[in-house]
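Changelog entry: the Uricase record was regenerated in this release. Current contents:
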Amino acid sequence: MSALAYLSSARYGKDAVRVFRVVRERSTHTVVEYNVKVLLEGNIDISYTKADNSVIVATDSIKNITYYLAKVSPHILIPERFAVHLGTHIVSKYAHIHKAFVDIEQLRWSRIVVGKDGKPQPHPHSFFRDGEEKRTVKVQIDGTAGKDKIQAHVSAGINDLLVLKSTGSSFTSFIRDEYTLLKEVDDRIFSTSVDLNYTFAPINISPPRDEKKLDIVIPALDQAKSGSVWDSTVLDRARTVTLEVFAEDESASVQATLYKMAEKIIAENADIQTVSYALPNKHYIPVDMSYMGLDNITPAKAEVFQPVAAPSGFITATVSRK
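Regenerated structure tokens:
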């Protein structure tokens, strides 16, 4: 072993495990599609420093555990619950594994609505992909203090929610100096691709009650505390807040609108501790038609725009509960 170096941290696992699950309730089916990443930490140093593989849970085994839990877990339809179940099972099963990091990206599938006897109804087993927005969950299961003192750290949110408003946004009174070319505008298009992440207060997880380390205690949906990690309506509330504030705010800047969205999410969900947004500008530049005698530059008369991908503004912030 080198006298000049040591292994200061190590984590490994399986990425890009694609899972599609059909839950059948008689003639009605419900589907979810996940991209799953599972990484592990623990007493695995010798696999790096001594080429000793005896402490490695093979990444192929991690993939197989993910598929097994996708089949048997009663929590598969809600990614926060499934991630906690998956991570807790692994940390509880392997004595030398102390932490599991489970990231889930859920793709959108919505029911096709069909007309039946003049009354549109959701089809029981047909779906369509209604956008590129993704639901995200990140869970850290920490058994460092002991397998009977497991804690879960959970964050969740959405990525790639593309929004646009054609008015109701301005940008004025910013610093002007020798580098400033940008003109002040009191009316402009505001568009962004929303990445939202909110973190919950840590929760204690009771150790599994069975020999296979599969039976963990998670509150029933109708018994979940409002605004907690177990509350399946948190995402819908956060998404609604994001869309409504974006639409209704007379935006003085992306920064100001971001803060209002985050502040309201914290107010409406008791266990959310922080809310983070990343909002890249999607620029739409009015086309100058003055050479043809047309005014397409004055904000009230601007109707034809050129979408510009780069360079673009990028605004981020984290708002925390006091």
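The first strand starts at residue 12 and ends at 25.
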